[in-house]
Design a protein that fits this description.
The chain is built from 18 helices and nine strands. The chain has three domains: 140 residues, Nucleotidyltransferase, domain 5, CATH 3.30.420.40; 132 residues; 205 residues, no CATH class. By secondary structure, the protein is of the alpha+beta class. The two termini are 56 Å apart.
Length: 498
């Protein structure tokens, strides 16, 4: 297969369309709908072999479309591997239909909505036939990408990441509604300067869901309140009970009556919803972690300041690590590079604008979060040697910030460069001065101490997740543990030998 200059597009489809006879290629564009899809069978030259077909979104519809394709394929003596089936990015209702077609060994492609619109025969009107001709033209002009399997790791990671993002928004909205009710029933309980109970913690939710009113706290004895707080796992329950009693005495109490009772019942129901929401949120995070630990994206968690959630979100948006382009292209895709405009000849300098709007905003948000965490989080190895505390990303952040520049954008771009190097090499993060020939000057004890600190950090980052059932040969965390144990065992042998 020849390598295309468009690495994001389907290399297999381009090879078929470039190398073979276009009349020995079938292109089947699909226009998806919930109940009834539209399909068209045509040659690689663009010649239509049938009228637009109505295909039901059922197994009967799958058999009908496969029958049409097979009749044309046999009539024209076209190989099964030269059948290209494509459509715009499929919705959930079309996934099972496409997977049934994949089982027939057809090549499945996806075309971006923007590309499909570009190749339509009419820009003012839209119909099933016009849309399908646009999709077919986009495929013939090598503008299609491979449709990834919906049971693959990267697809599951992306689904879990985006579901988690929506749940986080729902959790924030629910917190705001709970906060509003609490401010009426017990002003200051959640937003005191130093709240006695951590807001929205498990102990806080347990308190809110049972007849929560300021009058109840005023009536309860301090010793009884401290005992209950201790049973809920509150740190320093006696001090927390004293603080709650003082807060209850100074706050303005609501008028007792039906309104307060209704608000307390409403608060209890919202706390129940919060627990269910957090359970769903943990499930999506755990699913994302299970996918991440089976990919080279695991090595991003060795970077100081990058946790499992942030690494999973970044990898989910960038896709398979073997297809990651250079840092400049990834930064452009994320929209963290300012727009430039230059006109008026070489004597006129370029003008910088704002960030481009038509980019992957999710990825940009995650990268800016990564930049903030990496720029303010010291390397844990700094506990062993002070000059290891400021790692390369932290230095970049401080240097750009000192100049008054856009420190988070610069740090995010540097992170992409570091991340790409790690996943391509399958290596863990190491201090910059240790790279290359500098590693030869590292003392063995210093290196072993660094690995011990990194091992503790990784175990702490991954301990919250359930990774049971993953095969050891594809589990990068298990591979890291084996590597660390081998180094530790080698060190112990050296120590006993000396």
């Amino acid at each position: 297969m020849k390598r295309s200059i468009y690495p994001e597009r389907s290399q297999e489809a381009s090879s078929i369309l470039f190398d073979g006879d276009s009349r020995k290629t079938l292109v089947v564009p699909l226009d998806f709908a919930k109940r009834e899809h539209a399909a068209l069978v045509c040659l690689g030259t663009g010649e239509a072999l049938s009228r637009p077909l109505r295909v039901f979104n059922t197994m009967e519809g799958v058999r009908f479309l496969v029958g049409k394709i097979e009749r044309e394929r046999n009539r024209l003596q076209i190989d099964r591997g030269r059948v290209l089936v494509g459509g715009e990015d499929p919705a959930a209702y079309a996934i099972n239909f496409l997977e049934a077609l994949r089982a027939e060994r057809y090549m499945l492609l996806r075309v971006g909505a923007k590309e499909a619109k570009k190749y339509r025969s009419s820009t003012r009107a839209s119909s099933d036939q016009i849309d399908m001709t646009g999709i077919a033209e986009a495929i013939i002009h090598h503008r299609a990408r491979n449709l990834e399997r919906h049971d693959g790791l990267w697809h599951k990671m992306r689904c879990a990441s985006r579901a988690r993002g929506r749940l986080v928004c729902d959790e924030t909205a629910l917190k705001n509604r709970i906060h509003r009710l609490v401010e009426t029933l017990f002003p200051g309980f959640l937003d005191a300067a130093r709240p006695p109970v951590a807001p929205f913690s498990d102990a806080c939710l347990a308190i809110l869901e049972k007849d929560f009113t300021i009058h109840k706290f005023r009536r309860t004895r301090e010793a009884t309140l401290a005992q209950r707080l201790a049973s809920l796992g509150v740190h320093k329950p006696s001090e927390a009970a004293t603080g709650l009693k003082a807060l209850a005495e100074n706050a303005i109490a609501p008028v007792e009556g039906e309104v307060a009772e209704y608000q307390a019942r409403s608060l209890a129901s919202k706390v129940e919803s919060m627990r269910a929401l957090r359970k769903s949120l943990w499930f999506e995070e755990n699913e994302m972690a299970r996918c991440l630990v089976q990919t080279p994206g695991f090595w991003l968690t060795t970077i100081p300041g990058v946790g499992v959630t942030l690494a999973g979100n970044v990898c989910a948006e960038l896709g398979p690590t073997e297809r990651w382009p250079d840092a400049d292209h990834m930064a452009s895709y994320a929209g963290i590079v300012s727009r430039q405009k230059q006109t008026g000849g070489q004597d006129s300098p370029p003008r910088k604008g704002g960030l481009p709007p038509d980019t992957n905003r999710r990825l940009r948000n995650y990268l800016l979060q990564v930049a903030r965490h990496c720029g303010t989080t010291a390397d844990p190895a700094g506990r062993l040697q002070w000059d290891l505390a400021e790692h390369v990303l932290m230095k970049k952040h401080k240097r750009i910030e000192a100049k008054g520049g856009r420190s988070r954008l610069a740090t995010a771009k540097k992170f992409l460069d570091v991340a790409r190097s790690l996943v391509r090499a399958g290596a863990y993060y190491m201090p910059e001065r240790w790279l290359g020939s500098g590693f030869e000057r590292v003392h063995e004890e210093e290196y072993h101490g660094y690995l011990a600190v990194m091992n503790d950090t990784l175990e702490r980052k991954w301990r919250e997740y359930d990774l049971a059932g993953i095969e050891p040969e594809v589990d990068y965390l298990v591979q890291w543990r084996i590597l660390y144990e081998c180094v530790a065992e080698h060190r112990s042998h050296r120590t006993r030998g000396s």
